């Protein structure tokens, strides 16, 4: 029985290392999306419309429309990245951290049983 418990402990330890590595990767991904959202928001602020030079760029299919579209679509993409960053944090990271806590508890149980069996 002690060999089985030790194998269980080793298996949980491997699972834990993999989970931590995965969690770190997910957090990097979350940071990338948050940074992308911030940079896109800054880029969207560069485009200033309507133009101050006059009304010659206004109207349908004019240069002003292009700049409105660039600004608006940049804002939409920035919001999508920000939402994805929040989703990764709230759903994936939080659940993985809870799972990590549960796995640590299982490892402690395995260790207790192992010490009980070995010490007898």
TrEMBL record:
<dbReference type="InterPro" id="IPR046868">
    <property type="entry name" value="BAR_4"/>
</dbReference>
<protein>
    <recommendedName>
        <fullName>SLM1/RGC1-like BAR-like domain-containing protein</fullName>
    </recommendedName>
</protein>
<feature type="domain" description="SLM1/RGC1-like BAR-like">
    <location>
        <begin position="64"/>
        <end position="108"/>
    </location>
</feature>
<dbReference type="Pfam" id="PF20400">
    <property type="entry name" value="BAR_4"/>
</dbReference>
């Amino acid at each position: 029985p002690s060999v089985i418990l030790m194998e269980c402990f080793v298996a949980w330890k491997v699972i834990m290392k993999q989970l931590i590595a995965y969690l770190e990767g997910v957090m990097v991904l979350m940071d990338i999306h948050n940074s992308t959202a911030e940079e896109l928001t800054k880029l969207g602020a560069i485009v200033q419309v309507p133009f101050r030079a006059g009304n010659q760029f206004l109207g349908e299919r004019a240069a002003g429309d292009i700049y409105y579209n660039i600004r608006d679509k940049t804002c939409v993409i920035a919001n999508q990245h920000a939402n994805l960053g929040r989703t990764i944090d709230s759903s994936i990271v939080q659940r993985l951290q809870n799972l990590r806590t549960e796995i640590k508890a299982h490892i402690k149980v395995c260790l207790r049983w192992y010490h009980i069996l070995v010490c007898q």
